[in-house]
Amino acid sequence: MRGSARRERELRGWVAAGWGALGILVVLLIWEGYKFLGPAEGVTIGAVEGEAGSGLLILPRTHDRAMPHVWDMVARLFQPTSGGDTPPLIVSVMSAALVTLGIAAVGWLIGVTVGAILGLLMQRWRLVEWGLLPWIVVSQIVPLIAFAPVVNAIGIQIDRGGTPWPQWLSVAIIASYLAFFPVAIGVLKGLGSPDRIHLDLMRTYAAGYWPTLLRLRLPASVPYLLPALRLAAANAVLGAVVAEVSIGMRGGIGRMLIQLAGQASSDPAAPWGPTFGSIALGLIAAGSVALIGLALATYRRGEAAA
């Protein structure tokens, strides 16, 4: 019985991987299909004859400078980053990605800690939930590209005041800003998920709040927590990349995106290297949380969306 369950889980894993590979293949086919069939200058509506740049571009241009072939993007990864004796682009992307991944991991840890505390407080006291939850939701409306320079400016003032504050820490704080939200909501929903009959049973045993939390609420919250942690990991990577772009921190993949995007007119395939690297970072971050799920496999039945 246990062997059949293991085989069923392995089969589901292979099916999920197959669907993922099929999705990537479909995207590549759509890209190349549109490049082959689409007009070189794209599709524009409302253009005025004789006026260059007028009208609204609704479909992208398909010439090589705007839309390179997939195989050109892949080949560019193995060419020098900026000519001469510079390392291949894929090496530079991997180096920058490791920097961003480390910062995102710090942001994820901060976000998980803050989100878990907020979710725990909101579940414990209904008044705290009424007071905090609307502000937690509203906080996600603030544009990150405007919020990042504010955090960086505060960090600079702290550093000037005598307390060391490296720039990467500002990026980590910004990453945690996106990471804490799904964790807070997941903890709130997960801790409130046990059935009433189970809570009543704990009361008949004269169990207080903390024994109930540790023995009932936390195990019951695992199906809600794991999706929340995966989403928080992907959000932390997104926040780190956007923060690097916004505050101009060097060494990360966000800065590399801006630098190579400025060369797109002469080297159109180059910006896609760090773009692929950013996508891979998000997948690695979200997939790493699956390792936590392996240790909590007993409680993963009926895993829910946070």
Automatic annotation (TrEMBL):
Signal sequence coordinates: none
Family annotation (SUPFAM superfamilies): MetI-like
Record domain ABC transmembrane type-1: where: 97-302
CDD domains given in the database record: TM_PBP2 (cd06261)
Protein family (similarity comment): Belongs to the binding-protein-dependent transport system permease family.
Membrane topology (UniProt): Multi-pass membrane protein
PROSITE patterns noted in UniProt: ABC_TM1
Gene3D superfamilies: MetI-like (1.10.3720.10)
Residue spans crossing the bilayer: 12-31, 89-120, 132-156, 168-188, 224-247, 276-299
The name this protein goes by in its record: ABC transporter permease subunit
Record carries keyword Lipoprotein: no
PANTHER family (UniProt xref): ABC TRANSPORTER PERMEASE PROTEIN, ALKANE SULFONATE ABC TRANSPORTER-RELATED, MEMBRANE SUBUNIT
Xref: InterPro entries: MetI-like, MetI-like_sf
Keywords: Cell membrane, Membrane, Transmembrane, Transmembrane helix, Transport
Pfam families with a match to the protein in the record: BPD_transp_1
Subcellular location: Cell membrane
